[in-house]
From TrEMBL:
GO terms for biological process: rRNA base methylation. Belongs to the RlmJ family. PANTHER family: RIBOSOMAL RNA LARGE SUBUNIT METHYLTRANSFERASE J. InterPro entries: RlmJ, SAM-dependent_MTases_sf. This is Ribosomal RNA large subunit methyltransferase J. The keyword Chloroplast does not apply. Keywords: Methyltransferase, RNA-binding, rRNA processing, S-adenosyl-L-methionine, Transferase. It holds the Pfam family RsmJ. Specifically methylates the adenine in position 2030 of 23S rRNA. Monomer.
Length: 274
C-alpha cells in the first residue's frame, strides 16, 4: 500500500468527486427517512494543505485552489462546506464531507486499510456516535456491512487508489455484488481516466452483466491519449437520484473552465439506461 491521499488531497479529481458527492448527499437528505453511507476507501479525513505531502506535489493548487473564489451558484454548497471544514488551510476528505451532511437519523461507516490513515480518521470522529470507523479491507467490508440496518436506503462510495492492475475488474464485481445486496442503494465509483480503453472495458463488463441505470460523469483536463498521465477523472453512479444527471452536468459545466481552461471537456452520459 504505497498510495497516500495526502499527496493528492484537493486536486482536480477530488474537487470533481466531492462536488458530485455533496449533490448525491443533498438528494438523500430530501426524504425524512434516515440514510446510511458506506465510504469504502475513506482516507484520513482531513488534509493539511501546508503539510509536507501537499506541498511536495502542489496538486491542490490546480484543484481546489482554482475554485475557491468562484461565484458559480452551483458550486456554492461545496465551497461553503469546505470553508466551514477548514479550507483553504485544510482540505476535508470524503468522510468529513459525508459526516457533515448527516442528520440525526443518518449514519456513516468509513473503511480505511492503511494503518497510518485509519489512526487520524479514528481521531477525527472520536465521540461521534453517528460515525463508525473500520480498519478493514473495502471489498470485504462491502460484504460484511451491506445492506445497512436499520436504514434501508443510502449510498456506497467506492474510491479505490488504483494501485492494483485489476482494480477496474474488482470494482465491476463489487458493483454487481453490492447491487444484489443493497438494491435500493445509490453507488458512486471514482475512476481514473488515463486512456479510454480501460474505461470502455469497465463499462462493457458492467453492461455484459446486465447492469442498468448507470450514469458516467467525467471531466478530462486534456484528451486522454497519454496512458502514463492522469488526464481526467470519472464518477460512475449506479441508480442516481432523480435529476442528478442534470445537476451533475451543471456542476461540471461550472468546474471545467476553472480546472481545465485550455483543453478541458466534461460529459454526463447514461452508459446503461434504467
Ligand atoms: C483515493 S484515497 C481515498 C480518498 C477519500 N475517499 C476522499 O475522497 O477523501 C484511497 C484510500 O484507500 C485506502 N485503501 C487502499 N486499499 C484499500 C482497501 N483494500 N480497503 C480499504 N482502503 C484501502 C488507501 O489507503 C487510501 O487512503
Amino acid at each position: 500500500m504505497n498510495y497516500r491521499h495526502a499527496y493528492h488531497a484537493g486536486n482536480f479529481a477530488d474537487v470533481m468527486k466531492h462536488t458530485l458527492l455533496l449533490s448525491l448527499l443533498a438528494a438523500l437528505g430530501r426524504k425524512d427517512g434516515g440514510f446510511a453511507v458506506l465510504d469504502t476507501h475513506a482516507g484520513c479525513g482531513l488534509y493539511d494543505l501546508s503539510g509536507e505531502e501537499a506541498e511536495k506535489t502542489g496538486e491542490w493548487r490546480d484543484g481546489v485552489g482554482r475554485v475557491l473564489d468562484s461565484d458559480a451558484e452551483v458550486l456554492a454548497p461545496y465551497l461553503a462546506t469546505i470553508r466551514r471544514l477548514g479550507a483553504p488551510a485544510c482540505y476535508p476528505g470524503s468522510p468529513a464531507l459525508i459526516a457533515d451532511a448527516l442528520r440525526p437519523q443518518d449514519r456513516l461507516m468509513a473503511c480505511e486499510l492503511h494503518p497510518d490513515d485509519v489512526r487520524p480518521l479514528r481521531r477525527l470522529f472520536r465521540g461521534n456516535a453517528q460515525v463508525a470507523v473500520h480498519h478493514r479491507d473495502a471489498y470485504e467490508a462491502m460484504r460484511a456491512l451491506l445492506p445497512p440496518k436499520p436504514q434501508k436506503r443510502g449510498l456506497v462510495l467506492m474510491d479505490a487508489p488504483f494501485e492494483q492492475t485489476d482494480e477496474f475488474s474488482r470494482l465491476a464485481s463489487a458493483i454487481v455484488e453490492t447491487r444484489e445486496r443493497f438494491p435500493t442503494g445509490v453507488i458512486a465509483v471514482w475512476y481514473p481516466i488515463k486512456h479510454r480503453a480501460p474505461v470502455r472495458a469497465f463499462f462493457d463488463t458492467l453492461r455484459d452483466q446486465g447492469q442498468r441505470a448507470l450514469l458516467a460523469c467525467e471531466l478530462n483536463l486534456r484528451p486522454p491519449l497519454d496512458p502514463a498521465r492522469l488526464n481526467g477523472s470519472g464518477l460512475l453512479v449506479a441508480r442516481p437520484p432523480y435529476r442528478f444527471d442534470e445537476e451533475a452536468a451543471s456542476i461540471l459545466r461550472a468546474l471545467t473552465p476553472l480546472l481545465a481552461p485550455e483543453n478541458g471537456e466534461a460529459s454526463v452520459e447514461w452508459i446503461a439506461e434504467e
